[in-house]
Amino acid sequence: MDDRESILGLDNIRLELPIAGVGSRTLAGCLDYLILGVILIAWTFGAMLFLFAMEGSSWAIVVFIAGFFVLEWGYFAISEIVGGGRTLGKKAVKLRVITAEGGSPSAGTLLARNLVRSLDLVFGIPLMAIDPLARRLGDRLAGTLVVHERTMVAAPVIGRVPPGWGPRELAAVESFLARAHGLEDSGRTYEMADRILERLLRDAPDLLEGIDLRANPVQAIRRALQVEEG
Amino acid sequence: MDYARFVRLRRPLWEKFEAQLAAARSGMTHAELEEMALCYRQVLHDHALSAARFPGTAVAQRLRGLAIEGTRALVVGRTEGSGGLVAFFTRTFPRAFRRQLPLTGVALALFLLATLWGLAITSQRPALGIAFLGPGAVAGLEEGTMWTDSLVSAVPPALSSSMIATNNISVALTAWSGGILAGLVPLYVVLLNGLLLGSILGVTMHYSMAGELLEFISAHGPLEISLILVAAGAGLGIGRAVVIAGDRPRSLAVREASRDALTVLLGCVPWFVVLALVEVLISPSPDLPASFKLAVGLSLEALFLALAALPSRSLDTPT
């Protein structure tokens, strides 16, 4: 399970954010520093070739040093501003920067959180490890959080609820149905499905009328509870 | 409400909101945005209901995802000083600069104190100067040459001015960002630079070359010191919010302080570029008279202060 910390959104409604922990953030950071290193080497190499071709023109030197400086201080901020809160490393690890309210951060916010990066190389990792919201200095300064990005997939939803079933039963059956295809051991899958059918027979036998229970118990549950995807 | 009925009644709304979220990525009209905001509110309340009544179900998870996605799409962080570069330098920057002025004053006072201290100890014990300037520079001073002569003449001006500009910006950025460590780093930067300036003055006075030093720094020095102090003052502002948050949550206080501090810092950056050119082209030039260099230095400083601290009357009315 991931860390979940909640913030209060509009109308004081609690939003549980999938906060990214120190591990995934350090991984994304390492990837980004790797990319930045490659870019800086390429920039230096390109500049040397260019300088050689221009026979040491002074403008070329200015462009080279200014570019190096901007890359060094600005790679993270620029790529987060362009990528909507995601650097290349964060894209790879599926992370995103959001504000403490859960919204999209402004360019100034992203710039501020990345200006203290040199300090965070020292203090960032222990701070992220002890904070429940995994904020490093830059996050505290700019008021940002880093969360896991989830792609929403259609999941089975029960359309007919047997009497006496609460959220616990609904959640268990729905998550079983969502994973039934992926379970490797079909024997165990059927065993679990049979236990759900037994419970259904006890609680609501009328739902199972006219359904062949022996052919495919998973399909039988789906039909009895009128399960839809979505 | 029963689970199945809840899903049956509300699902069309969730699907509509999902479609709006997808459409929002490619831009939308004002009317569409308003409708989306309306849907968002309803989805958010459905999320609250499902999280309380049907926790763990597929619908509760879907609604949680929709609420988070919707919040990210619709709640956009406030951008201070939007409205172009001109508005930034004529309105946003001066306003933030004036709010930070007391802290810049503190930085200036500490800097002067450190300068005087450095001056005092090196004029008492010139030997300490070797520790600051290095034995090579002091040996040069004994022969009557300034180390600054070789500082810039050995390399092409383009190279040295870029190096100086990036180095100065780095110092300013460090002073600024170190504010988050309770203001300790800006304090260090201010005191160290003051001490260095004071002791260099002391050493050059000992070798009767203070005139040359003052001539060298007169063109770029005033503004360079001002910019470092302004950046350090902004860092102190962040540090103050860390230490004394007042009656607000500390995280909020730090965020608010950082907004002004960032504005002030960004307003200083272009001046560093101007400074680098002056420091390479005007400061070391032996052909230019000292009075001209001093005039350049004072007018640069006056221009910066005029743009930053003397805003037009319309600024006093908050927008």
Unreliable sequence segments of chain A:
none
Fraction of residues in β-strands of chain A: 5-15%
Radius of gyration of chain B: 28 Å
Largest sheet of chain A: 2 strands, antiparallel
Total number of helices of chain A: 9
Task: Please report the number of helical segments of chain B.
Answer: 14
Mean pLDDT of chain A equals 86
Structural class of chain A: mainly alpha
Rg over C-alpha atoms of chain A, rounded to the nearest angstrom: 27 Å
| Structure classification of chain B | mainly alpha
- Written as H for each helix and E for each strand, in order along the chain, the element string of chain B is HHHHHHHHHHHHHH
The shape of chain B, in one word, is elongated
Shape of chain A: elongated
Helical amount of chain A: 55-70%
Question: Pair with the most extensive interface?
Answer: A-B, 63 and 72 residues
Q: State the assembly state of the protein chains.
A: heterodimer
Helix amount of chain B: over 70%
The main sheet of chain B comes to:
none
Q: How many runs of DSSP E, i.e. beta strands of chain B?
A: 0
Head-to-tail CA distance between termini of chain A: 23 Å
